[in-house]
Write a structure and sequence with these properties.
Chain lengths: 93, 118
Amino acid sequence: MFAVATAAVLITLALALTRAILGPTVFDRVLAGNSVGTLAILLLAVLGFLTGRPEFLDIGLTYGLLNLIGTLAVLKFFRHGDLAHDAEGERKS
Amino acid sequence: MLSVVDLLSWVLIVLGSFFTIVGGIGLVRMPELYTRMHAASVTDTLGAGFLILGMMLQAGLSLVTLKLAFILGLFFFFAPVVTHALAQAALHEKVEPLLAEDRRGRGDGAAGGDGRGP
């Protein structure tokens, strides 16, 4: 039954990659990239159970944290054109 | 022999697989960015939630269950943060949502969200 879950996650990964290639705006691609990150964590967990060695979950946790930071950094870069942009100054003006 | 816990966890895992695929199909089929974000959130909440709950039932009471609970909490806190940041950045770049009034006015639903990059 974990094979079913693995197949489902792999199919969804293919669909997310389709959207990342098709996506007209850059935000569609960022959304698809974030989905790929989520699905990679799920795939790590399910594969760990499928092979009977659920020690991959630590890698999944780390990957989740990196996924958040990476997505937010890309979004900040495309919004402000600069990773060191001070958002507080913009809000006051 | 299948115990009740086994049966319940298989049901949860199959439900999670179903919702994961539904989210993926929505990600490809939806017409513009904001509806696609809605479809991706199905994968993030229902798909991942059911899959991880099913795996927690399979693992029993151990350290693995605790790690799975951490991953579940991570999804539940980080997915809304990323979705909010994405919507804010997209609105700032003037990617307009596709509205029902626009669709009636133009007579062509596919014309909205005109696909311009920043």
